Amino acid sequence: MDRSKLYRRFRTLLIANRGEIACRVIRTARAMGLRTVAVYSEADRDAMHVALADEAVLLGPARARDSYLNVERLIEAARKTGAEAVHPGYGFLSENAEFAQACFDAGLVFVGPTAAMMTAMGSKSGSKALMEKAGVPLVPGYHGEAQDEATLAKAAEKVGFPVLVKASAGGGGRGMRIVRSAAELGPAIVSAKREAKAAFGDDRMLIEKYVDNPRHIEVQVIGDSHGNLLSLFERECTLQRRHQKVIEEAPSPTLNPAQRETVCAAARKAAGAVNYVGAGTIEFVSDGKDVFFIEMNTRLQVEHPVTELITGVDLVEWQLRVAFGEALPLKQDEIRLNGHAIEARVYAENPTKNFMPSVGKISTWRLPAETGGLRIDAGYREGDAVSPYYDAMLAKMIAWAPTRDVAIERLNRGLEDSDVRGIVTNIPFLSALITHPKVRANAIDTGFIERELAVLTSAAPAPGELELCAAVAAIVNDERKTAQNSPWHTFGWMPVGRRQRGFSFRVGHGPEHKITLNYGSGPSTLVIGERELAFAVVPKDGGFDLTLDGVKSQVAAVIDGHELYLRTRNGRFDLHWVDPFGGETEEQAGADKIAAPLPGTVVAVLAEEGASLEKGAPILTLEVMKMEQTLRAPYAGVLKSIKCKVGDIVQEGVELAVVEASGE
Ligand code: ADP
Ligand code: ADP
Ligand code: MG
Question: Does domain 132-139+215-338 have CATH number 3.40.50.720?
Answer without folding.
Answer: no
